[in-house]
Write a structure and sequence with these properties.
The structure is a homotetramer.
Chain A: H1 2-14, E1 35-38, H2 44-53, E2 58-61, H3 69-73, E3 77-78, H4 82-88, E4 91-94, H5 99-107, H6 112-115, E5 121-124, H7 130-142, E6 146-149, E7 152-153, H8 156-160, E8 164-169, H9 175-182, E9 186-193, H10 197-225, H11 230-238, H12 245-248, H13 272-288, H14 294-308, H15 319-324
Parallel strand pairs in A: 1-2, 1-4, 2-3, 4-5, 5-6, 8-9
Antiparallel strand pairs in A: 7-8
């Protein structure tokens, strides 16, 4: 019942008068009805599995058919393209690599919006330009559907264990419905504001993360060269105003901490290439909003240079290694 | 006599066997003998007062006689110059603005080393180039004295309340004696390693602090322009990997936190000019050790530009204000 | 009829055999037929006047009707929107502030492509993202028209005196026709390659210009502080490897050269805001092509900061003033 | 006779009254009397040879005896240390790698000033911190000698062919005497002002050179990725406001120009390590004079990172190669 009203409330919110309940979406009436999932890559795959574990029937698709095998074996129905997903599910999650993929999955010739049902809830967990999120939201609204951006923080490990953090932008009255689904895949689901603010929060966090990581790497390297023991230096920073996540939780210097990529030759973790992509988004939004981001901009350039020097697939904390190698080696 | 004995203990510290306790220094045995203090500025003044409060007779000097009045009224003996301090005290603390002042106070015509007693303990709490600390240590050693660098973190408030953090470099066997004095003025006294590592730790911390502060300011500004509420954005960053001291303890955006300079028009706190000075030291040590510090270097330039634009005396978190002003205003 | 024939010539250009000259376009044969002009701002106005001076009938439009008065008085026919221009002229020049304006003028509801004639030659002299130029070219090609990008270097003065430089991208076989028109407004018309390369050349030049200007300003300022006479320093740089256009032709230090904005309180010339815009384009194309541009990126940030500090409308050489102001002033 | 008077004039200039001509230096009376030369490295060796070619008897020394062989075979007298050079020659040129070497050669235990004759002319062609030049000048003045800084531009090739440019700082009345010697080794000898301004001019030029080179490399790389032909792009830049020495005389892109290191796998030319050193000097002088040099500072960091990545001994134009390598290669 609450679900019925909830659907009502949505329509009411926009067209408050003369609601004909006969036309109200049944989308979330039975919460264990089908959920669409588009994009079964490294992140999407474990996310879809977590939906299945929580009892949701999943109807999925991916441009690479082989990516669908695992979830198919676990019971998901596989269809040919996003339009078909939209034909069969009124709650859909998309998890795609970049803006053009998202644009295609929503507005392309076989895109969601070709067959989307009125009242559908479309949640995009890709990390893309907030301006694209806004465009998708506007296009969805024209079709009577609701679009929310809900990018994640946390990598493949968090996706597998259902411990992602979702940063959600969109109509506040839809947040409860979105949270119901996202909670199957994440430990934190944070409402950020209007459409695009989920992306904004994600991009902002990652820009500051990149700055903190490069800064920590420079600082640790300088301290070591000045004769400080790296563990002691990390300890001093972490009890002082230099403290940051990169120094106290994900230290880039091999041997300072256990269980982080710096202790494993920078394997695993969050790739330099992915960080460069997110910094590119940050740079684009900053340019478009005429916002000066001098350190964010330089961080972008450094990760871009690292990609050009063979670090593309190493964890982004490998900037320590990039900066420290000695002359003559 | 005390000096001779002290010198023994010092040597004993290095050759730990066959210690004849009869010869152990009385320097710290009689802990409430005179302590010299050179440099009674904004920081030195409250520090010297804390020594007096702890019952130490203080013999002090400053190039500006008027700076001596307060401690004189509290019982300190004032003399004309560092040499005279050294003539009367075998434990001396120096707290001076910059490298040239330190060089002069130690090796100048009326410097400490002109009259230093063998076995004296010389503690420099100024923030200077670690290379200068090493030079002073070598010069002191020639005179049979021990030099330690012990720069502080924490500002005038922490100095007044005796809550400074001291980062100490020098012979480890002298650390206990140094700590006895420094504990009167600080809450934390951390041993960092050989001479100069105290400075190194201080400089490293402040470089990372500057990077974190500018990064936080850029990020908050970008997020606000993208439609995020600043308090919400700070909360998201602080539960995510963008978290740093500047975001969670000293947020630069007015209204996000209470009790920080951003809430008080950037009055008080740690001045931009002082940060620019510390970043200049970081830059110099990085240049001299051929260490790349791209973000540290750009942070230095930004604080330098801020000094040129009227921000010299505002708290260093005012970089948020520097970056955010709108076109046309 | 002319349009049909012109279309033939265009096709002929691609399929060079069996050309029947009887079908060759009359577009440029009767060179003094109407030329469309869209965008009569600071630059477009004098450009359109030069077309009139060269005897071309001009049919023009601008979103601000008052911008049309001058050319109307000189004989230009004013119409309501770009579609109407396209209805009456098969050679059209657009000169607009930014990418969205160009997109609207070509593909908007009253855009050129609504009524463009087959075989029309569309030349865009705006400075925009080369990716947008490519999109416009593709859209024009669908309608049987030819699009070329032809951004200019040189400011309002060069526009008035017909001394602009045009950097032209597009089908090489159309270059002669484009050059015929552009030569009325410019002293140099350079063919750069496929569509978008005109923009690329413009953006590249301006990025290097910005780097050179900031670099010259830093260098002159440093030299002056080190005791060098600015005129002498400029002379030394200009006979050495530091030489660049900003040092030898447009020196940013007041008093070093005559007839440049630095001698006139940075009035006139090329505004900081316009430079920031071009650097934003450079940054975007670099991000999109994954090209590291560390100095270009920092130059962008510096001009962005200057805009935020009141320099938006000063000549871009005012970066010297921005960097040099003394502490305490 | 002129030479005698010239010597007089010098003393007169400083102690204008009561000159006793008996004590006047005979230094430059016979211009082909011995010239001292200290530092026979890659640059010093061909410079000393040019002095020999011009008929000057040379008395030389170097810390590496084997460096002395060539000039010894050509007739130079080799002595053990700078003090002995000063004992036998009253005009001395020093050409050393860095500030500490210069300090040692002048003020060390076997330094020039131990045996320098009153009225001697000491010319330092090393590239060092201008502050050190000033210290050396002050120390020399105490001994009655004259010190001038005269760093060079031009590499080993220019040193061999006698085509160096000397930038000279020091007492103007000594310039003629300095020029007489320096003209044997260089094509241009430029008077820059007081002591240290020769260094200042050198450092300023090289900072702007580094900025221009990195800027040109970024720009060329960006343009190529945007589809421009590199030769055409260079041509366009060189006729436009992006023009600089690095684009028109020493283009970093292989194939654009002949006879430059980019055409020879970046062999020869001016090594990245040497550029990093000069940028370190620029950074230090900027820090010490509180001058913002954002691009110069970033250029320093980039050349420092290049040294850490294996580019130390390649020509500094190899920054193009450093920036351009593709992802995945």
């Amino acid at each position: 019942m609450a679900a019925v009203l909830r659907g009502c409330r949505y329509l009411v919110g926009r067209y408050p008068k003369h609601v004909d309940f006969a036309f109200v979406s049944t989308r979330s009436m039975a919460s264990k009805t089908q959920v669409g999932f588009i994009g079964l890559g490294n992140m999407g795959n474990p996310m879809a599995k977590n939906l299945l574990k929580h009892g949701y029937p999943v109807i999925a698709t991916d441009v690479f058919p082989e990516s669908c095998k695992e979830v198919q074996e676990l019971g998901a129905q596989i269809v040919d393209n996003p339009a078909e997903v939209a034909d069969k599910a009124d709650r859909i999650i998309t998890m795609l690599p970049s803006s053009p993929n998202v644009i295609d999955a929503y507005t392309g010739p076989n895109g969601i919006l070709k067959k989307v049902k009125k009242g559908s809830l479309l949640i995009d967990s890709s990390t893309i330009d907030p301006a694209v999120s806004k465009e998708m939201a506007a296009a969805a609204e024209k079709m009577g559907a609701v679009f929310m951006d809900a990018p994640v923080s946390g990598g493949v490990g968090a996706a597998s264990s259902g411990k992602l953090t979702f940063m959600v932008g969109g109509a506040e009255e839809e947040f409860t419905a979105a949270k119901e689904l996202l909670s199957c895949m994440g430990a934190n689901v944070v409402y950020c504001g209007q459409v695009g603010t989920g992306q904004a929060a994600k991009i902002c966090n990652n820009m500051l993360l990149a700055i903190g990581m490069i800064g920590t790497s420079e600082t640790m390297n300088l301290g070591i060269r000045l004769g400080l023991d790296p563990k002691l230096l990390a300890k001093i920073l972490n009890m002082s105003s230099g403290r940051c996540w990169s120094s106290d939780t994900y230290n880039p210097v091999p041997g300072v901490m256990e269980g982080v990529p710096s202790g494993n030759n920078y394997q695993g973790g969050f790739g330099t290439q992915l960080m460069a992509k997110d910094l590119g988004l940050a740079q684009n939004t900053a340019t478009n909003t005429k916002t000066p981001v001098p350190l964010g901009s330089l961080a972008h350039q450094i990760y871009r240079m690292m990609c050009a020097r063979g670090y593309a697939n190493k964890d982004f904390s490998s900037v320590f290694q990039f900066l420290r190698e000695e002359e003559g080696q």
